[in-house]
Design brief:
By secondary structure, this protein is of the alpha/beta class. The protein contains ten helices and ten strands. The chain is globular.
Length: 276
């Protein structure tokens, strides 16, 4: 894997006043040599690169993948656009999160299972005061979910269901009987994105990660509560009419983000953007 931005690799050093690579000074280039090199990065190196900002305020980041022609999925699933390295980054982002927020449709399409504890992140999570695995929080207005799935019956930590106060009473009961914790984050049936972020933060779940789907991500964007986008740009073209990574309501003025980092592996670009 190579870091393309911020520039910290030998490419920048070679360009300093025509200096030879063995004599060019990193300080003169205004950069430092990174610990990870151009080969496969360790999970620790990736975790350092994707670390959440310090502080007590909630931080909502999204992790999505897109083809070159803007498709957020192929035949209803994101997996055909992914790669082995993309899945490593996916695992790292989960390993850093307190909670993974996901829409009900994505749970159904992607076959979501409970997050698992990973030994590689155990010490890091313990030092950060986190549990062994992130909580999964499913956003659903109708609660049209299969509560017999392992996501609800076999999680390491109880799965959360975020819904509105007007959700069907019978479905709320079924969710609770299955072991899920139902949280209300909106009036009526629908979930208010800003309220969802706040409700999770109130439970100590500050480091928030959403994996979509596109409709849920679009709602977070429209509400102005998305802090960071981790977008994998897949070197693929799909054509067709697949949905983009974010859909739903539009914003009056496009939300501006600035690039935080760009990594590359096998033609895949792993980008991070933070809201300005």
């Amino acid at each position: 894997m190579r870091r393309l931005f911020p520039v910290t690799d030998m490419t920048a050093l070679d360009a300093v006043e025509g200096a030879a690579p063995e004599t060019a000074s990193p300080a003169a280039a205004g950069v430092a040599r990174p610990a990870p090199g151009a080969g496969e990065w360790s999970l620790d190196a990736l975790a350092d690169a994707y670390a959440y900002p310090e502080g007590d305020a909630p931080w909502l980041r999204a992790n999505m993948v897109s083809s070159l022609d803007g498709a957020g999925q192929h035949e209803g699933r994101s997996q055909p656009l992914s790669s082995e390295t993309d899945m490593r980054v996916f695992g790292v982002l989960r390993g850093l999160a307190d909670v993974v927020v996901v829409g009900a449709e994505t749970v159904r399409l992607e076959g979501y299972r409970p997050a698992r504890a990973r030994e590689a992140f155990a010490a890091r999570r313990a030092a950060a005061g986190q549990g062994p695995a992130p909580v999964i929080a499913v956003v659903s207005a109708s609660l049209d979910l299969d509560f017999s799935l392992p996501l609800f019956t076999e999680p390491l930590v109880p799965t959360l269901v975020l819904t509105g106060s007007g959700a069907p009473v019978e479905r709320i009961r079924e969710a609770r009987e299955a072991g899920a914790v139902v949280l209300f984050a909106g009036d009526g049936a629908r979930v208010a994105p800003a309220r969802a972020v706040a409700v999770l933060a109130e439970r100590g779940l500050r480091r928030q990660l959403t994996e979509g789907g596109p409709r849920l991500l679009g709602q977070f964007v429209a509400a102005g509560v998305l802090d960071e986008l981790c977008l994998t740009i897949s070197p693929t073209m799909t054509a067709g009419d697949a949905q983009r990574i974010a859909g739903g309501p539009s914003v009056a003025v496009p939300t501006r983000f600035q690039v935080a980092s760009v990594l590359e592996q096998d033609g895949f670009l792993f980008t991070r953007y933070r809201r300005i």
